[in-house]
């Protein structure tokens, strides 16, 4: 091995540790003692000829050597001038940001914070709150007005645009502008609630503190909220919970509102959104609820009274609310309300809002009205509102107003109702009723008597007046609408119009005939007026029901009209004297489908037409409403122009804008309509309707009375107005499940009620007032129409000339009643089914015909689907059942 690779010799004692010690120049002990005070740390390493190597020692020797180097001894006693005792922790010599626990204190004192620390923490806390409040204020916005705070009534107006009533909607509220709110009302709430209203920023810290202090010492509970806070709570915050978070939000929003919204806007918003009791939200509703007047008409005493209601109407409403709280008696509430009212007035004087002389006038509670179910709807108003609402919702596709939208309120609804006409119609009905109907004197005949009526403008279709019953808050069925009362002979003009429009069928052809196969009928055409006439099909065969029974049609009073043996009368006379047999046969010859079509074209609703496949359909077994009857006759008044009746002219709202547009249809030609009018004018001039004559005016109309004398009608018109009046007896108690139309024999002291009696009298008295001041217009002269069917025999064999301007090339067919069956002698009893047929009929709803019904006492056929239901009094079928169809005896 080379020399330079040879391992060096190790010191005695060998091993790597010894080598390390050798390299460091240390002695053979484990640790060298530190050098003396004058020795350099490196002396032992770098000086040659060092002293003899120190003996090797252990760790304890090294520790002792170190102690000796620093002065020796085990441990020095604490410095007498030291800060602590015993073995306490020595100060570190540095400063802490927060000296807690305190370094210079011992025991429990170490845990007591210094005043500097407390002050600092408080300043930090409140500073943080201010920062947080500033951030919250910066981020909070002014919420939108809550929709419930804007929910209000619908306002209904008369046709002259004066207000009728404010009602409906989800909330009894009508928002008004601040100028409509008396200053006294504004100062009353300011004096009582928030005297610093015009100077504060939306909150009142002093007021909040005062409220807390008073409640803490057991004083009167009071709120610390300002008017601004209450406005925010009522109108902007849907959350009404009593939580700290909601209250803080209310405060921040109130400050924001106070700094950004005008005081006038806040005041108006508060008074319009506050709750005053009696389901009245807002000052306008409250004024109506307690005093029956508008807010602008309130005096200072009434304003102070309503300000008291804001404290909580349960305990201040003078009517009392013991059902809510037994302590809220009327006497106790009146005492509280008076004291609160006086306190408010005194404060108004103290703060300079009221002079002492005015204040002295109000020392007692103002006259207040008892709470009642919406008295604004009493009389006819409730019926008018219901009718307008029904029109809007039924015609949603046109109006854009659903039931839900109507319920939300806030709509201004301008109706067609003429206030003067409504009052005149109500007055006319009550005058006749009070003078003639005496239920106390005649309980068996005069109880449950009801009237209904309606007026429609022929030029527009506008419903100008109705009579729905004695009072909408007592009688809940609108008698101007469909009641189930049959219209009787007032239906005959539609049969006449059908005969003049489509004509009678050729008896030699099939039942479905084209127009050129028919013959238009002239008013001079003659038909049989024979009582108990055996009704025939258009082709001359005897009409029979599905059971094979014949129909013998009676007339009112069981009287035949015309000269024997055929008893023929022309259609003018038949209408004038209301001859049933002539119009029943005419309807069969024309076709009942055409009669129905004429009625619907005039304006009747198809679902109000009953028994359309039976002969008696032509004499009024259906039950249209008074409104629809007036509107249908208005079609004749308008020379055949049909306009649906309507009750709303215009609707405005935040999201609604609707205006009615009148749609006109050609129901009949002018020639047809004017001829019908001319014949109906004869009824008033010389026939059953003379009681309806208006001196100097043209009047056309028709009376109607049904079998069993269970309803009576008069429907008539002038060129400017069409009116229908109905009368019937019907139990108003809805809990009576077996109620039905009652007979009116003896009612009002009369042997029998006809349309010519009370209904015509009411029509006359009302129309006299309704037409006052209007020009006396004349009906147009009718043009000749149609061919004379079965003309009156002339002394010469020369046939009568046709009235038709364009004579038909086909010969006039012989009417099916040209050869009626021989009239029975007085001793006859209507043939095989004749027992008792000469007596008055009934329509009591049995399955057998009335005594004077079509075939006398023939059993009723199985009712068809179009005969209605029992609820409308039409379930008894054709022969004198619940619909009185078989035995309908009309005048």
TrEMBL record:
What does the record give under GO molecular function?
A: penicillin binding; peptidoglycan glycosyltransferase activity; serine-type D-Ala-D-Ala carboxypeptidase activity
Listed under catalytic activity are: [GlcNAc-(1->4)-Mur2Ac(oyl-L-Ala-gamma-D-Glu-L-Lys-D-Ala-D-Ala)](n)-di-trans,octa-cis-undecaprenyl diphosphate + beta-D-GlcNAc-(1->4)-Mur2Ac(oyl-L-Ala-gamma-D-Glu-L-Lys-D-Ala-D-Ala)-di-trans,octa-cis-undecaprenyl diphosphate = [GlcNAc-(1->4)-Mur2Ac(oyl-L-Ala-gamma-D-Glu-L-Lys-D-Ala-D-Ala)](n+1)-di-trans,octa-cis-undecaprenyl diphosphate + di-trans,octa-cis-undecaprenyl diphosphate + H(+); Preferential cleavage: (Ac)2-L-Lys-D-Ala-|-D-Ala. Also transpeptidation of peptidyl-alanyl moieties that are N-acyl substituents of D-alanine
Q: Which ranges does the record mark as transmembrane? A: 117-140
**Keyword Hydrolase on this protein?**
yes
Q: Which keywords does this Swiss-Prot/TrEMBL entry list?
A: Carboxypeptidase, Cell shape, Cell wall biogenesis/degradation, Glycosyltransferase, Hydrolase, Membrane, Multifunctional enzyme, Peptidoglycan synthesis, Protease, Transferase, Transmembrane, Transmembrane helix
Protein's UniProt keywords contain Transmembrane: yes
- Tell me a GO biological process for this protein: proteolysis
Q: SUPFAM superfamilies from the entry?
A: beta-lactamase/transpeptidase-like, Lysozyme-like
Q: What residue spans carry the region label Disordered?
A: 1-100, 774-891
Bias (Gly residues) ranges: 833-856, 874-891
Domain Penicillin-binding protein transpeptidase as annotated: residue spans = 554-724
Q: Where is the composition biased (Basic and acidic residues)?
A: 51-64
| Glycosyl transferase family domain ranges (all copies) | 166-341
Q: Which residue ranges have biased composition labelled Low complexity?
A: 20-35, 809-820
List the GO terms this entry assigns under cellular component, sorted alphabetically. outer membrane-bounded periplasmic space
> In which family does this protein belong, per the annotation?
In the C-terminal section; belongs to the transpeptidase family. In the N-terminal section; belongs to the glycosyltransferase 51 family.
Q: What is this protein called?
A: Penicillin-binding protein
Q: What is the lineage of its organism?
A: Bacteria, Bacillati, Actinomycetota, Actinomycetes, Kitasatosporales
């Amino acid at each position: 091995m080379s020399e330079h690779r040879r391992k060096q010799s190790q010191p005695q004692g060998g091993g790597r540790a010894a080598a390390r010690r050798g390299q460091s120049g240390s002695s053979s002990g484990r640790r060298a003692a530190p050098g003396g005070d004058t020795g350099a740390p490196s002396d032992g390493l770098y000086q040659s000829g060092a002293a003899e190597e120190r003996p090797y020692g252990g760790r304890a020797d090294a520790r002792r050597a170190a102690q000796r180097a620093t002065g020796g001894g085990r441990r020095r006693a604490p410095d007498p001038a030291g800060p602590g005792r015993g073995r306490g922790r020595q100060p570190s010599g540095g400063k802490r940001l927060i000296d807690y626990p305190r370094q210079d204190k011992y025991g429990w004192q170490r845990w007591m914070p210094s005043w500097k620390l407390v002050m600092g923490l408080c300043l930090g806390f409140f500073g943080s709150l201010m920062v947080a409040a500033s951030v919250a204020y910066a981020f909070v916005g002014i919420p939108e007005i809550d929709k419930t705070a804007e929910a209000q009534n619908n306002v209904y107006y008369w046709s002259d645009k004066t207000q009728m009533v404010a009602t409906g909607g989800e909330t009894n509220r009508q928002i008004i502008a601040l100028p409509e709110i008396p200053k006294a009302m504004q100062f009353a709430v300011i004096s009582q609630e928030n005297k610093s209203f015009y100077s504060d920023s939306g909150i009142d810290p002093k007021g909040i503190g005062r409220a807390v202090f008073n409640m803490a010492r057991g004083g009167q509970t009071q709120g610390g909220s300002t008017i601004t806070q209450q406005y925010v709570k009522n109108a902007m915050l849907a959350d009404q919970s009593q939580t700290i978070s909601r209250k803080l939000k209310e405060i921040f929003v109130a400050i924001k509102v106070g700094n950004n919204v005008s005081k006038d806007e806040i005041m108006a918003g508060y008074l319009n959104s506050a709750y005053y009791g009696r389901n009245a939200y807002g000052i306008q509703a409250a004024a109506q609820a307690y005093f029956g007047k508008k807010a602008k008409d309130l005096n200072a005493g009434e304003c102070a009274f309503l300000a008291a209601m804001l404290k909580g109407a349960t305990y201040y409403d003078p009517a009392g609310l013991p059902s809510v709280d037994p302590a809220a008696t009327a006497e106790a509430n009146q005492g509280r309300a008076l004291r609160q009212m006086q306190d408010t007035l005194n404060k108004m004087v103290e703060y300079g809002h009221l002079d002492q002389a005015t204040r002295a006038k109000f020392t007692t509670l103002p006259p207040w009205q008892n709470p009642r179910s919406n008295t604004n709807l009493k009389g006819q108003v409730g019926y008018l509102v219901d009718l307008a609402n029904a029109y809007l919702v039924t015609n949603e596709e046109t109006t854009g107003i659903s039931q839900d939208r109507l319920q939300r309120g806030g709509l201004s609804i301008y109706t067609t109702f003429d206030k003067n006409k409504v009052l005149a119609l109500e007055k006319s009905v009550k005058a006749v009723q009070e003078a003639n109907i005496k239920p106390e004197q005649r309980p068996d005949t005069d109880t449950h008597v009801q009237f209904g009526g309606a007026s429609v403008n022929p030029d527009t279709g506008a419903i100008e007046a109705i009579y729905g019953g004695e009072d909408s808050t007592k009688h809940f069925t609108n008698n101007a609408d469909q009641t189930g009362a049959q219209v009787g002979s007032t239906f005959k003009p539609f049969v006449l119009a059908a005969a003049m429009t489509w004509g009678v069928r050729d008896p030699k052809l099939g039942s479905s005939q084209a127009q050129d196969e028919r013959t238009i009928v002239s008013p001079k055409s003659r038909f049989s007026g024979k009582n108990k006439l055996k009704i025939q099909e258009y082709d001359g065969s005897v009409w029979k029901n599905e059971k094979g029974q014949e129909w013998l049609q009676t007339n009112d009073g069981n009287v035949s009209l015309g000269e024997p043996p055929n008893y023929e009368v022309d259609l003018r006379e038949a209408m004038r004297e209301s001859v049933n047999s002539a119009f029943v046969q005419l309807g069969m010859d024309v076709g009942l489908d055409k009669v129905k079509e004429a009625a619907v074209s005039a304006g009747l609703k198809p679902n109000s037409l009953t028994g359309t496949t039976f002969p008696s359909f032509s004499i009024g077994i259906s039950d249209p409403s008074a409104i629809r009857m007036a509107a249908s006759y208005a079609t004749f008044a308008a020379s055949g122009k049909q306009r649906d009746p309507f009750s709303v002219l215009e609707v405005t709202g935040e999201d609604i804008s609707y205006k009615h547009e009148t749609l006109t249809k050609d129901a009949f030609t002018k020639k047809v309509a004017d001829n019908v009018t001319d014949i109906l004018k004869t009824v008033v001039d010389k026939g059953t309707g003379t009681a309806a004559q208006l001196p100097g005016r043209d009047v056309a109309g028709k009376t109607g009375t049904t079998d069993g004398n269970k309803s009576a009608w008069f429907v008539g018109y002038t060129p400017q107005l069409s009116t229908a009046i109905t009368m019937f007896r019907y139990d108003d108690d809805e809990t009576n499940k077996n109620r039905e139309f009652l007979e009116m024999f003896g009612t009002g002291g009369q042997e029998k009620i006809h349309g010519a009696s009370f209904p015509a009298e009411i029509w006359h008295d009302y129309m006299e007032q309704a037409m006052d001041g209007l020009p006396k217009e004349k009906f147009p002269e009718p043009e000749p129409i149609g061919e004379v069917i079965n003309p009156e025999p002339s002394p010469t064999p020369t046939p009568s000339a046709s009235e038709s301007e364009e004579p038909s090339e086909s010969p006039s067919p012989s009417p099916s009643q040209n050869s009626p069956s021989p009239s029975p002698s007085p001793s006859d009893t209507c043939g095989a089914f004749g027992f008792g047929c000469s007596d008055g009929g009934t329509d009591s709803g049995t399955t057998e015909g009335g005594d004077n019904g079509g075939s006398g006492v023939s059993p009723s056929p199985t009712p068809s689907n179009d005969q209605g239901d029992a609820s409308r009094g039409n379930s008894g079928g054709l022969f004198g059942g619940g619909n009185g169809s078989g035995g309908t005896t009309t005048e």
